[in-house]
Structures are given as C-alpha cells and as structure tokens.
Amino acid sequence: MTQRPSSRFRNAAVENWGLKLLSFCIALALYSFVHSAPELRKTITTGADIRRNEVERLVRDRPVLLTAPSKARATPPTVDVRFICDSAVAGALKSLQDEQVVPRAEVRSPSPSGAELVTVDVSLSGCRAMVNPPGVVVRW
Fold this sequence. Notes:
Elements: H1 5-14, H2 17-40, E1 54-63, E2 65-67, E3 73-75, E4 78-86, H3 90-95, E5 104-106, E6 115-121, E7 127-132, E8 135-139
Parallel strand pairs: 2-5
Antiparallel strand pairs: 1-4, 3-8, 4-7, 5-6, 6-8
C-alpha cells in the first residue's frame, strides 16, 4: 500500500519534532553568535611606554683629553658624562671609578694655529654615553 504524497510530507514534518526544534535553536544561537562578532572586535587605541631595565650614572667634571697640538686648550676644560646602561652591565658601571672615565676630543685641523669646535666622545661597552656639553672649543 502506497501513501499519498501529501501524507508523506505531513508525516515527515511532524516526525522527530523535538530534534527539529533543537536543531532550529542551535542554528539560531549560531547565527546570533556569528553576526554579533563584529561588535566584539572594536579597536581601542592606547598609549604605552615600554622601558628596559636600565641603570644610569652621572660622572661630573671630567677633564677632556685632547689629541691636538701640544699647547691646545679646551673651553670648557671639563665635561659631565651620563652613562645609560643595560642591567646586564650594571655591576661594571657601579665599580667604574671616576678617574677611568676619559672624554676625548680630536682636532683634525692641520693648521699650526687656530680654533675648532670639536665633539667630545666617551665610549663604554654596553652603554650609551651622553656628554654635557657635547662639544668643546679647542684653541691652539
């Protein structure tokens, strides 16, 4: 005995009614989750300062070593040096004696007399050195 097409459709529509309702609820929840996601992804811009662990040390009034003619004089004759070092070399920086800091200025002019503004350099491995004032006037 064969069933009519309309009765087959009606039986398919009411058969497993609970599972069909459950699948509809899951589909509705999934739809709302997917379409509400853009509101969850709002962009927020903030500012942040990221600093490494650094150690600073100031060495004051160090005389400038001149590589210039013998009667050369620097103005000012002394400079201050600020070292900024990574924490890895902090122990070496603390044990550094002031006398070991030697700021250097090199005159490159070949003339037998004159004056020149020269940059003062200080180097220490693993550190940045900031010299104040950064240059001196050398007269010879």
